[in-house]
From TrEMBL:
Listed name of the protein: Cytochrome bc1 complex Rieske iron-sulfur subunit
Transmembrane segments: 56-77, 97-117, 167-187
Function statement: Iron-sulfur subunit of the cytochrome bc1 complex, an essential component of the respiratory electron transport chain required for ATP synthesis. The bc1 complex catalyzes the oxidation of menaquinol and the reduction of cytochrome c in the respiratory chain. The bc1 complex operates through a Q-cycle mechanism that couples electron transfer to generation of the proton gradient that drives ATP synthesis.
Compartment annotation: Cell membrane
Gene Ontology cellular-component annotations: plasma membrane
Record's keyword terms, sorted: 2Fe-2S, Cell membrane, Disulfide bond, Electron transport, Iron, Iron-sulfur, Membrane, Metal-binding, Oxidoreductase, Respiratory chain, Transmembrane, Transmembrane helix, Transport
PANTHER family linked: CYTOCHROME B-C1 COMPLEX SUBUNIT RIESKE, MITOCHONDRIAL
Amino acid sequence: MSKQNPEVPGDEELAGMSRDELVRLGTRLDGVELVEYPDPWPVKGTRAEKRAERLVAFWFGLSGLSGLAFVAAFIFWPAKYVAPGEEGYTMYSLYTPVIGLTLGVAILALGFGVLLYTRRFIPHEVAVQERHEGGSTEVDKATIIAQLADAGTRSTIGRRPMIKRSLAFGGGVLGLAVTVVPLGGLLRNPHAQSTNEDGLWHTGWLHHGEEKVFLRRDTGDASEVELVRPEDLDAGAMETVFPFRESERDDHDALVHALKRADNPVMLIRLRPQDAERVVKHEGQEDYNYGDYYAYTKVCSHVGCPTSLFEQRTNRILCPCHQSQFDALQYARPIFGPATRKLAQLPITVDPETGYFIATADFNEPVGPAFWERKS
Ligand code: FES
């Protein structure tokens, strides 16, 4: 080791120095002047010190309890959709606030605990240091290790088992809470409480027996049923429609459910005649349209936002979430943005008896984003 600085001790002298001496040597060699280096609790075991310790432990404990509450709510809280007015709606509507609140409190409480501990128990030295260039010498390495060990000792964490345990509890549970979110989908069977095991594969347009499924608009009142006829749309227009069955006309809950079910909304588009001439149909969907009328799901194939915008001039369907665009003239295939799959097309025709639009079948593929069992 070269001794460029006369203050640098030899190896033998270095080995004989105490940690405190090494700390001060390190700061001196680094051109650091320790102006103040006070012990926050010079008299050990005072009531004030114990009070501060309990306060820190309280926040870590609160973090742990809140983290546990989050994990419990995430796993056990009833998260299945319940329509307004139905039994269980209050619990369902509280699901998101509860998991948000519990996770938020867990993170905040842990932060408060760390902050308080730093303020109450870590020495607040005042030091001035000059910068140096080049790599670290052996002396620098030895002294910095001593400084770090000294910081650990002076933080007194080693002799505060209550804080150590509460920190381990809070940090551990929070870590568990963070882990359980991505693992949640694997822990819980999404179909466990479903009355429809095929829920992801079918929508409310699924036919039950021979009953016709009409296209209705949402007027804001579920009981006010307005069906849609071809004359209702001008060329270039778009309307959002939902499934309706005559058997449900007097069933308010069923009518509300049909309007609220997430995978039910469909865009009914009437192309302009000059545009309709340029349509390219997807194999197997050649008879899905009725003249110039085409119906596509409103659920984006990217991550499921409503693709609510139809641009008449370009015949593009736009998803406002991440700007995916789909070509309504080419079976709604994606032409821009992150979506990689076409929008599912609903096969429609006009009921010869009533003159209203009906769906001839459910979609021929799941709507919306990919999911575990989906292969395409
Ligand atoms: S959800 Fe539509 S582009 Fe992302």
